[in-house]
Amino acid sequence: MTQPVPLKVVIIGGGTSGYMTAAGLVALVGSAVASVRLIESDDIGTVGVGEATLPQIKEFNDALGINEAEFMRETKASFKLAIEFRDWGRIGNSYLHPFGAFGQPVRGVEFQHLWARARKMGMTTPLEAYSYAIVTARQLRFDFPSDNRQSLKSTFSYAYHFDAGLYAAYLRRFGEARGLVRTEGKVTSAAQAPDSGRITSVTLESGEVVEGDLFIDCSGFIGLLIGREMKAEWESWTPWLPCDRALAVPCERAGDFTPYTRSTALEAGWQWRIPLQHRTGNGYVYASSFISDDEAAARLLGNLDGAALADPRPLRFSAGRRKKSWTRNCIGIGLASGFLEPLESTSIYLVQIAVMNLIALFPTRAWNPGLATEFNRLMDIEYERVRDFLILHYHANSRDEPLWTHMREMTVPDSLTARIEQFRHRGHLVRYRDGLFNPASWLAVLTGQDIVPEGYDRLADSLDEDTIRTKLEEISERIAVNVDIMPTHADFIRDYCYIPPVRESEGVPA
After folding, report:
1. Do the beta carbons of residue 106 and residue 467 sit within 8 Å?
2. Does the N terminus or the C terminus of the chain have fewer Cβ atoms within 10 A?
3. 230-263 burial string, b = 16+ CB within 10 Å, else e?
4. DSSP character string of 346-402
C-alpha cells in the first residue's frame, strides 16, 4: 500500500507564535503526516507576545513532553498564581484574579451562592480568604497543587512568567531536533492557483521559491499572507478597547518576588509588572488620544522597582481580529490573526488554542472546507470571550479621568451586559464548553470591580445558617494553616529551577 505523501506546511515568521506552531506540529502531528518548514529573517524583529501566561501553557508544554524545570531554567521563568489589579474599579482598591477556584461546593450548592448567602447572614470574611491561589500569592509563597482531587490544595493551578524570546529559542531547538527545517530569509511575494486562489508558493528575497500545501502566517501585525494575499477582513474592536500603544522596558529586579503579575490602572491605561528570575518586565498600555507618548514614557519610568535596563520600546496596535483567520489554505496565528491587549495574559493562550485547534482539525489533501469553518467558529468564540472579559475591567469603574468616564458610559456588547446582569441579580455565572475564563475568573473580576450579587441560587437556602458558617470558616482556616507552611516563592525557585541572573532585552506581556 502506498504511503500518503506528507502535507508540506510552511510557516511564515518565527517568534513565539511561529515556534509554538512549529513545535506543536512536529511533536503532535508528526513527520508521516506533515513536513514543517519555518521561514524567518533575523533582520525582522518580533513583538514578543508575552512574558506572563495562563495555566493552559503548562498543558501545552506537557503535551510536547517538555521538562518543566529545564524549560524554566532556559527561559529564566518564575511561577504565576494570579494577576493583581490595582486601582481598577476605584483608586486605592486591589484584588487578585486567581488561577483556581474559590472554596468548594457544599451539597451541590456552588460556592459563590454560599458566599452570597453568607454575606446576607452578616459574615464579613472577604472572598479572597476562600481562594488557595490568592492566599498563597499574597504571602509570596508557592508549592505545587495536590493530585488529590478531594484536597483543598487541588483547587488551584499555576502558570509562568518567562522571557518570550528565550521561550521561542527553546522551542526552535526543540522543533529542529524533531525535524523542523528553518530557512533564513524574507518573503517578498506569494503565488496563488488561478482556479482556487490557494497559495502554492512563496518567493524569498534571495529568489528561492518555497512550495507548500498549507501556509501558516505568523508574520505579526503585518499579516503578510492572511491579510495581503488572502484579503481576510479585519474586524476592529477599538470602540470598546481604545488602548492603541504601549511602551515596554525591563528594569533590575527589586522589590517583592511576587508569584503573580501586577496590573496597575493609570489615567490613560494601565501598567504591567512581571517578575522574572533575572529582571522585571514593565510596560504602559495606553490610549494615545488621552495621553502623549512623552507623558506615557515619563509615567512608566517613574513607576519602576529598579533601574531601567534599556530605553522604553514603543509598540502600536489595534484591538480586533480577522473574521476568517483560516482562509483557503492559509491560517493566521498570533498577531496575524488578531490582537487583544495583554491585560489578562491571553496572547500566548490565543496562539496555543489556535495551534491545538489546527492539530485537531488538521487537513488532508482532500481539503474539506468544513475544517476551516469549524476552526474559524472556535476562534471567534475564543476572541469574543476574551474581548468581553477585558471590557469588563474597564467598564465597571468609578474613576473620574476622561478615559475611565468614557469606558464606564459606553455601550458594551450585549453578551457582556447579559453576564453582568445575571450575576448582579442572583449570582449566576455561565459555564461554557468552549472559550476562555471559567466562572471563578468572572467571580474574581466582577466582585473585584465592585459588582456584587443582590441575590443567590435558592438552593443555598436548603442549608441552615450554622452549616454555611461552619463550612466557610473551615475552608478559610484550612487554607490559612496550609499556606503558612509553604516555602516562599523565592526559595522554591532557588531549589527547583534557579539560574544566575543576567541582563536580557525587554519583553512584552501576554
Report:
1. yes
2. N
3. bebeeeebeebbbbbbbbbbbbbbeeebbbbbbb
4. -HHHHHHHHHHHHHHT---TT--HHHHHHHHHHHHHHHHHHHHHHHHHHHS----SH
- Write the DSSP symbol of residue 88: S
Residue 305 scores a pLDDT above 70: yes
* Angle subtended by helix axes 56-64 and 347-360, to nearest 10: 50
The CA–CA distances, whole Å, from 468 to 150, 295, 439 equal 19, 51, 21
**Residue 457, phi-psi category: left (phi > 0), alpha (psi -120 to 50), beta (remainder):** beta
In contact, 315 and 337? CB cutoff 8 Å: no
Instruction: Taking residues 479-508, report their average pLDDT.
Output: 83
Per-residue pLDDT tens digits for 7-31: 999 999 999 999 999 999 999 999 9
Domain with CATH 3.50.50.60 in the chain: 7-50+163-234+320-368
Residue 76 marked ligand-binding: no
Residues marked active site are found at 80
Identify the burial level of 177 via C-beta atoms within 10 angstroms of its C-beta, where 0-12 means exposed, 13-18 middle and 19 or more buried: exposed
Strand partners, 95: 85
- Do 53 and 348 touch, CB atoms closer than 8 A? yes
Q: Is 408 exposed, middle or buried (0-12, 13-18, 19+ CB in 10 A)?
A: middle
* H or E element in which residue 116 lies: helix 111-120
Collect all residues with Cβ–Cβ distance below 8 Å to 298 and sequence separation of at least 6.
Answer: none
Terminal C-alpha separation, the chain: 47
Taking all residues of the chain, what is their mean pLDDT, rounded to a whole number? 95
- Summarised one tens digit per residue, pLDDT across range 225-254 is 999 999 999 999 999 999 999 999 999 998
Q: Which residue has the cell 517613574?
A: 302
According to the model, what pLDDT value does residue 309 have?
A: 93
Check residue 435 and give its pLDDT.
85
pLDDT of residue 506: 46
Asked whether residue 335 is marked as a ligand-binding residue, the answer is yes
Say if residue 187 carries a ligand binding annotation.
Answer: yes
Between CA 293 and CA 301 the distance in angstroms is 12
Q: Which CATH architecture has domain 7-50+163-234+320-368?
A: 3-Layer(bba) Sandwich (3.50)
Query: Residue type at 99?
Result: F
Contact 188, 105 (CB under 8 A): no
pLDDT category of residue 510 using cuts at 50, 70 and 90: very low
CB-based burial of residue 469 (10 Å sphere; 0-12 exposed, 13-18 middle, 19+ buried)?
middle
Q: What does the angle CA 90 – CA 95 – CA 100 come to, to the nearest 5 degrees?
A: 145
pTM here? 0.95
Cα dihedral 77/78/83/87 (nearest 10): -100
Q: Which residues pair with 40 in a beta bridge?
A: 184
The confidence score (pLDDT) of residue 101 equals: 97
Q: What's the rounded Cα separation, in Å, for the pair 492 and 476?
A: 24
Identify the burial level of 63 via C-beta atoms within 10 angstroms of its C-beta, where 0-12 means exposed, 13-18 middle and 19 or more buried.
Answer: middle
